[in-house]
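From the pipeline queue, job 12 of 40. The input is one protein chain; the requested action is below.

Action: predict structure.
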Amino acid sequence: MNFRQLTWSTKKKANEFLISNEFKQKGKSIKGSLLSILAGLMVAAIIVMVQNVNPFEYFYQLFKVAFNGLYIEQTMNWFAVYMVAGIGIAVGFKSGVFNIGMAGQMLAASSISTIVFWSVVGTNVAATPIMVFVTFIVCLVVASFLAAIAGALKAYFNIHEVVSTIMLNWIVWYLFKFVFSIFKQYADDSVPSTSKMMPTDIFTINGNNILIPLLIAGGCIVIVAVLFAKTTFGFKLKAVGSSQSASKYAGINVKKKIIQAMTISGAFAGVAAFINMYTISPNTSFTVDNLPTIGYDAIAVALVAFNNPFGIIFVGGLWGVIQSAGPLTSGLFGMPTQISGLVFGIIIYFAAISIIFMNFAPVLWTRMRYYIMKSKTRKITLNGYNAQQAKYRYWIAFPKKSPEYLKNIQGMNQEEIKIYTQDFKETCRMEIHRIENQISMFKKNVVEKEINSGLTGLKYRKHTEFNKINSDSLEKYIDIKLEYLSFKDILMGQAKNYVAYEKTQFKNVKKIRDQQIAAAKVWKQGAIGELNLEYAYVNGKVQIKGDQAKELNQIKDKIVSLKTDLKLQIDLIKLKDTLTESEKSNQIIDAKSLTEVQIKNLKASKQEVKNKAKEEIAHLKRQHLEKVAILKQEQTQLLAIEKEFEQKVAHAKAHFEKETKILHQAVIEHQAKFDLVKSGLDLKAATDLVDELNQTVKNKLQELKTAKVTELSELGKVEAEFDNLLQLVEQKYVDLTKILGDKIFADYDNNKFVMKKVKTALKVQKLKLDVAIEKVMKVDAILVAANKNINDNILRETKTQLLNYKAEYKTKLAELKENITSQSQTEIAKLEKDLEAKIAEFQNKAEAKEDVERIKTSYKAKVKKIKDDQIKGQEVFDSYLKIENDYSQKVENYIKKVSAKFMTNIKEVQ
């Protein structure tokens, strides 16, 4: 494949990935991670502002200090440690286990490495380089082993890994606190309960310790990324993490995978400890009972990065900056040094609720709100749903306000009313839930309709068509490549079998011999087992244990039944009113005594069952051992079996030798057929044919690639020319088979000529592959160009026409509003005249002031009702709906017409 084809296929695959659901999900994860970090920084900024510090200045100084020449080495080392530790936690999360014991694993790894290092090195400085490698292995083994313990407890005893790892953390802490307190040769002389200082210049290159830790961390990231993306083992780990039940059903050993996942996670903890030990923390102090926080911080790194290996790079970098420069920057502004830890905590909190940020879509919500508010009918419909919800919520709070509730509780007593009230409220909640679903579907339909309607819908369909062209082209490209690779695999397989004829046949003959010998061994083992009663002993033992378990379960059930009956008897005795308390007490004692005797007898029978089973097993074993002893003494039957076994083996070896001789003779006869002159003439003719075809195809492809196709109607002609070229290549391959034969190589070809002929045939198929791919690329380019430049004139025309439709729609709405307003104004004017007349009647009566106020209030209420009716009235709603439906239908019909006009040619070609 040439570079141009590779670039084209890569671009198409990238486009395909960008519109895939997988990319959308990854995008949501990235968005959730970024927004959680941003939200955390914003809240942290508020806290900084409360302390009279400019947050922008604070964060600027934070990064400035972190990458200052004095602190950049420390920052990068923290970065490397967090990357490795975070990826270790992510491996566990992806596999469904929570390795919260990374702190203890790192502590154990670094502590034992320190002991090993100073035990060997001592004053021998020359041993330091090799001991660095030794301590790396020690870190890996120790941390992996500690994590594997938790994995095994989880897998085999269902002890949750969080509990076991936390316990192991503190066991490790107090164990090494004791070690470094007692064994002074491994402890720091100047500080009590502190491990001895490790050298800090191990990774130094040109005066800094940055490069090697980052290379190690980068390697860990790549390993995990490849592990989960490209390997079967990684897929199985992810499958176990997604669903253990489904994994078991698929045949995956879940217990094994849990242990492996924890072990791998622990191994990365060991690598993190190795880097940390030689850079950031060369010794560990046990004076205060606080575990190192690095292991716990790594959990936050993995959570915020959503366990994505490459996301951990960026989150680890941020954590490194905060850890390295946070306390110092806080001190510069006179704030508590714990501010950096607070920023940590806030970001972690927002990461924990990242699902909110993943579903955060303000643009979509704004568009949805706009689409609803711009339509009267949609707004009224949504208000209607909201009003229904409000009504049911009000009835839940005040059931007696519901006419239906008041009607149904008539004639009920208090207990019935209580039960009915609960049912009524539950019914209201169900109605609220139903209306919520209706609102959700209503909003979804509004968005879908808006996306697919008008000019937006036209552009949306244009992009959809473009994506379809992209997918179809890529699918054809993949099919063409698979066809070529399939042909190549078959032909190369046949050639390799021919070239390695003797080796292949000898391997088959040897395999038959080994199978016969293995069968003879199985027969021998079985015959001896039958003879010495070994199988009778093993099978009988299984049967006896099964019967024993069955009888013991039956006895156990009887004991449980007796206890249940006793409890029932005691309850019945206590309920008898005819008995005195002393009589009840006596009867209860008697019942208990009787039950205890029965239970004691049953327990004794359990022991009898066990003893009987032991005796029967012992009897079978004695029979087996006696038979073995007899056979050893007599030896006759064993010798007969051994003799027959040796005969079977000898027969297998004799058959092998016979077949080997036949094979050698066949090889000699095969080699005698070689005709190098004839093979050379065949190859010469085939090479001439391929060279001529190669030049023809090269010239024609150059002509077709450079040809400019301006009209979509010319696409058929271009395809025909490519098809003619493909037919030419296929015909030349037929001619090649006439020269070389259908199998490409013949019995008279030696190994050298076989492979040359195969390569010649593959050259023709490669030409066919190139022509087919170039055809796909050319057709794709024409279709994409047509789809991208989709009749700009038509789109401009469409925009103008849609604007006309919109203006017409607005005009009709304005007319409707004017008519409604005019009608309302007439009714209001009539009310005003009535009001003036009524007020005039009371004008000269001072005692009628209250009546006048009442009339004015009534007038205002009627005017409000008229204005409300012009919005809420069904006739008005129907009028709005009719105008909107007419407008929508007009736009839809026009868009369909336009769509058909500029999509016809593309669909016809496809």
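Job complete. The chain has 30 helices and no strands.
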